[in-house]
């Protein structure tokens, strides 16, 4: 059984704060790491798919880094806005059986 | 472009009833997936399909069945509904299944078994 752990479970920040969360995954048999953004009452939406050690991806104020040797990825949000409030999921893929293993997510709430 | 469409959005079933959750995608994706999401838990894979006519079990397949007769459709069937199947169900699809492509999700079906 693969363990994908995300921390913290939840986070409450003020508008304008920058924040980051962690996704930990097994460092062996790595193939890809996905990040999804999941707003309440909507469906998960892909942010990044990362495949190479040292990868850095950016989308607006959101960026992610990947360390496959030590088995972690960081998601950063710069200057948080209320519309960033969502649950951020990471998912790990080992290259077998087409299956992603999801973490339980970090729930972010941004207030004015 | 509709993406992944799930119906119904909500349903209440009695114990022992059966129903089919519908999922359709219009992106010509080969791979399709069914997940369930329980409070405090991550998305758990129920079944997946790598193409028409091919399906395989995920982590939590008991109590469910699937079929994939076309590329577009991937229905999930509950034969004898049990309270443990109360959950939110998500269907997803991807162009390829090697993990290098993101999955596209439907809006979910909220199912309650009473």
Task: Please describe what this structure looks like.
The complex is a heterodimer of chains A (112) and B (114). With 112 residues, chain A is mainly beta. Chain A is 0% helix and 54% strand. Chain A has strands at 5-7, 10-14, 19-24, 32-38, 45-50, 56-59, 62-67, 72-77, 86-93, 100-102, 106-111. In chain A, strand 9 (86-93) and strand 10 form a beta hairpin. Chain A starts with a strand and ends with a strand. In chain B, 0% of the residues lie in helices and 49% in strands. In chain B, strands 2, 4, 5, 6, 9, 10 and 11 form a seven-stranded mixed β-sheet that branches. A four-stranded antiparallel β-sheet of chain B has the order 1-3-8-7, with no helix packed on it. In chain B, a hairpin with a 2-residue loop joins strand 5 (43-51) and strand 6 (54-57). Chain B is globular, with a radius of gyration of 13 Å. The A-B interface holds A 4, 31-32, 34, 36, 42-46, 49, 51, 89, 91, 93-95, 97-105 and B 4, 31, 35, 40-45, 48, 50, 56, 58-59, 90, 97-108.
């Amino acid at each position: 059984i693969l363990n994908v752990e995300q921390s913290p479970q939840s986070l409450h920040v003020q508008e304008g704060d920058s924040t980051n969360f962690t996704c930990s995954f097994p460092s062996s048999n790595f193939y890809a790491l996905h990040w999804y953004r999941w707003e309440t009452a909507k469906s998960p939406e892909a942010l990044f798919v990362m495949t190479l050690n040292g990868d850095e991806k950016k989308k607006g104020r959101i960026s992610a880094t990947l360390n496959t040797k030590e088995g972690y990825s960081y998601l950063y949000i710069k200057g948080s806005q209320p519309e960033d409030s969502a649950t951020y999921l990471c998912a790990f893929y080992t290259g077998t059986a087409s299956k992603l293993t999801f973490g339980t997510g970090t729930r972010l709430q941004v207030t004015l | 472009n509709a993406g992944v469409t799930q119906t119904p959005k909500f349903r209440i079933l009695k114990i022992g009833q059966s129903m089919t959750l519908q999922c359709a995608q219009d992106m010509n994706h080969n791979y399709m997936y069914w997940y369930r999401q329980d409070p405090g838990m991550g998305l758990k894979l129920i079944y997946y399909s790598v193409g028409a006519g091919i399906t395989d079990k995920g982590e939590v397949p008991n109590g469910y069945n699937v079929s994939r007769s076309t590329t577009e459709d991937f229905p999930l069937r509950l034969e004898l509904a049990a309270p443990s199947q109360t959950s939110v169900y998500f269907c997803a699809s991807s162009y390829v299944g090697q993990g290098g492509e993101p999955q596209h999700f439907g809006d979910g079906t909220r199912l309650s078994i009473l």
